[in-house]
């Protein structure tokens, strides 16, 4: 794909949450840190957007519990398309990196929704700087 957007220094994030207000809040927060954020409101929409822009998204942040396609299924699909794209799972429930199915993904972090505003920018920067 010879798209000039791919070579920009600004990092592109796909933020996925079926609660539209949370996705938009996340986009605003990350936009304040200089990221370009695209929102999707379910896993299927996110997968379509990812396929359209791949390989331009630098990282995907997704809720776990969503209708149609949950976050783990989305992570598995993205891994099949682009195994190097890091993914952060966000959940309102207690999750660990040991959840079943995570071995077939590029999930780099699991983040509690209650700490997203506080911790997410730091986690993103750590993942992106690690390469």
Write a brief caption for the model.
With 131 residues, this protein is α/β, with parallel strands linked by helices.
Would you give an account of this structure?
The chain has 131 residues and is of the alpha/beta class. It has a single domain (4-130), classed as Response regulator (Rossmann fold). Helices cover 38% and strands 20% of the residues. The protein contains four helices and five strands, in the order E-H-E-H-E-H-E-E-H. The chain has helices at 20-32, 43-53, 71-81, 116-130; strands at residues 12-16, 36-40, 59-63, 87-91, 107-112. Strands 2-1-3-4-5 form a five-stranded parallel beta sheet, sandwiched between helices. Helix 2 (43-53) runs parallel beside helix 3 (71-81). The longest helix is centred in the C-terminal third of the chain and has 15 residues, at 116-130. It is globular, with a radius of gyration of 13 Å.
Main attributes?
131 residues; alpha/beta; Rossmann fold; 5-stranded parallel β-sheet; 20% strand; globular; disordered N terminus
Widest sheet: strand order? 2-1-3-4-5
Number of domains: 1
Averaged pLDDT, please?
Answer: 86
> How widely separated are the two ends?
21 Å
- What is the CATH architecture annotation? 3-Layer(aba) Sandwich
CATH hierarchy class name: Alpha Beta
Share of β-strand residues: 15-25%
What CATH calls the topology is Rossmann fold
| Radius of gyration (Å) | 13 Å
Mind telling me the CATH superfamily name? Response regulator
What's the total number of strands? Answer: 5
The number of distinct helices, counting runs of at least 4 residues, comes to 4
What is the string of helix and strand elements? EHEHEHEEH
**Which stretches are poorly predicted, pLDDT < 50 over at least 5 residues?**
1-8
Q: Largest sheet at a glance?
A: 5 strands, parallel
Q: Which structural class matches the secondary elements?
A: alpha/beta
What is the general shape?
globular
* Helix residue percentage: 25-40%
